[in-house]
Specification:
The structure is a homodimer of 393-residue chains. Chain A is of the alpha/beta class. The first copy, chain A, folds into 2 domains: 248 residues, Type I PLP-dependent aspartate aminotransferase-like (Major domain) (Aspartate Aminotransferase, domain 2); 121 residues, Aspartate Aminotransferase, domain 1 (Alpha-Beta Complex), CATH 3.90.1150. Chain A is built from 14 helices and 13 strands. In chain A, the strands form 3 sheets. Chain A has a 7-stranded mixed β-sheet, sandwiched between helices. In chain A, strands 1-12-13-11 form a 4-stranded mixed β-sheet. In chain A, strands 6-7 form a two-stranded antiparallel ribbon. In chain A, strand 6 and strand 7 form a beta hairpin. In chain A, helix 1 packs antiparallel against helix 10. The longest helix of chain A has 22 residues. The radius of gyration of chain A is 21 Å and the shape is globular. Chains A and B meet through helix 1, helix 2, helix 3, helix 4 and helix 10 of A and helix 1, helix 2, helix 3, helix 4 and helix 10 of B.
Amino acid sequence: MAITSFNPPVRTLMGPGPSDVHPRVTSAMARPCIGHLDPMFVGMMDEIKDMLQYAFATKNQLTIPVSAPGSAGMESCFVNLLEPGDKAIVCQNGVFGGRMKENVERCGATAIMVEDDWGKPVDPQKVEDAFKSVPDAKVLAFVHAETSTGARSDAKTLCEIAQKYGALTIVDAVTSLGGIELQVDDWGIDAIYSGTQKCLSCTPGISPVSFSERAVKVIKERHSKVQSWFLDTNLVMGYWGGSTKRAYHHTAPVNALYALHESLVLLQQEGIKHAWKRHQDNHLILRAGLEAMGMSFIVDAAYRLPQLNAVTIPAGVDEAQVRSRLLNEFNLEIGAGLGTLAGKVWRIGLMGHSSRKENIVLCLSALEAVLGDMGADINTGVALAAAQQQSAS
Amino acid sequence: MAITSFNPPVRTLMGPGPSDVHPRVTSAMARPCIGHLDPMFVGMMDEIKDMLQYAFATKNQLTIPVSAPGSAGMESCFVNLLEPGDKAIVCQNGVFGGRMKENVERCGATAIMVEDDWGKPVDPQKVEDAFKSVPDAKVLAFVHAETSTGARSDAKTLCEIAQKYGALTIVDAVTSLGGIELQVDDWGIDAIYSGTQKCLSCTPGISPVSFSERAVKVIKERHSKVQSWFLDTNLVMGYWGGSTKRAYHHTAPVNALYALHESLVLLQQEGIKHAWKRHQDNHLILRAGLEAMGMSFIVDAAYRLPQLNAVTIPAGVDEAQVRSRLLNEFNLEIGAGLGTLAGKVWRIGLMGHSSRKENIVLCLSALEAVLGDMGADINTGVALAAAQQQSAS
């Protein structure tokens, strides 16, 4: 049977990402493709670099979008900074710390793990202790905003510890960029990667990264070649570099970069501090409604991410069936738990263009309808009023 | 100064890629984003796999799009099949053989180079000789259609030689897929990668790959882990695999895959044999016009690619200025020479949706106008008639 054009349903995306894409972003993506060495395209690349510097709060020259998803951005940071025999302290308090460990080991380096419970932030004292045991660690790697749990770690403090021991920092900002405060230069972050599909309101597929001058120096002085040709920053710099003469490295994903460009224009127009505040305000509204319903958060308020709400599942309901009904009856996607939290929590995203009051109202109403129908032990008829009261405050 | 939305010019893309994107493809790309684990998305993934099998002429189960450009597809083939200490025979007759060598060496393997002049196909006798010298080579790697020169190598014969010596084959089909005959199963290719931005009429950024059962067995029996986490086929198979339960690996570039899906629907509707014939027919029309103008091809007709026309530059003109005027006055992009051919040739692409008679007529007319104006030594007033005569034949 012949396969025909794919027409996706129109969903509201309140999972851990991708989040709702702003219509201006999808429109930009559909503009005519031009050559990846076209002078007009090169000009647009420079604008993307400028706007990424704004988003990351950095003056780092090497601030570019990797032409692949966040996991490739992560790999880009590790393969460029680590060489065989190096040591890296890796903090794990969720799924993505484990992925960092995999990256370290595949570089022929050794990972010294600092473990914290899922749902807790990275404990700075444990990191300090790890550096005392391994003072020659080259890198400290941690996740700023753990998408698998909804916990924020104190990036500023962790970077200060690394600097005290002369180590470079690699920071996962996939879920934090655009959603909560992030200060690459002020905090002294050396290598950072993010994704387009979370708080930037953009389609998935591209990973913004930034490397400090100190990191670039380390990369330029490597003894061995970077094991990945595609991600070798020495080569990528020739294409994304400052000169007007760009060296061909790979064919850039032209239309995906149109989308990123437009999402960054949106961020500039809103103002990043306003974006952070919007994420926080909307989180409080959702929280008021969920708590009124009787649901609770697994992460303490002190380090809870506003953009990724991990909440417990009411007793007596089949959580997968709830998600399936939300999707089929309301075209609403929320996220399942990952790893040790699978089956135990839902992850409700309020990221980027998804962080809107109309989405919150839909989510609370749909959850109440489905959970009520399934006989779950929740308070009914109170969530929307609680949300509205928080919104007015 | 605030950066505003980017509105690209409308170009005609007749360089080495990206080529013109079919409007149905850009429209598909702008459809609403849905979750990468949404059942509707998983269904679309299966359709993409089916249609890629059709395009590659293979039944290989592991036939998927890598979520990154062609260079990542290349790297995916090498890092999955090679381990430190392995030997690979690499054929170089243009830019991309050199990139293959880089990939082999970054895997800790040894590259045995088979060199041919740029513009010539790979010489099977030299490959046979290389296997006689290095009978334990694990891999033979070559480029089917060299984008840097416009030469086609005899993939079928080269694969037969590799099979005689028990070696796996890695084939670069970035520019060949959809443009000229390619038979993955019949020719016994073990690993192949392509790009979306050439003869598939799609936007750049995704790399279709396919691995034979023999290659999958080699990957599963590796002694060492694949050095790239992002490209580790053992992990990617869990996401793109046959089961209905997909394991999260990375967030797929959802909208870019809508585009690929639509481009593959277009290919099925046209029929792949018809697409090959269209590329050949249009090449002959362009050729008639260019030759009437007095320009000549650097590749012999016997192994000339119809989709990538490398032609000499008329004496006495500044080739970069010609390209610049074509771009600025006619919104027409043609390609410069790469590597040893830089400054010596133009590369005129007739790939995918660019391979249309209206594009040929524009290209011949614009070239004649600009070259004539610059006083180049060409025959004027004859190109269009010659093209028309060929078209009618």
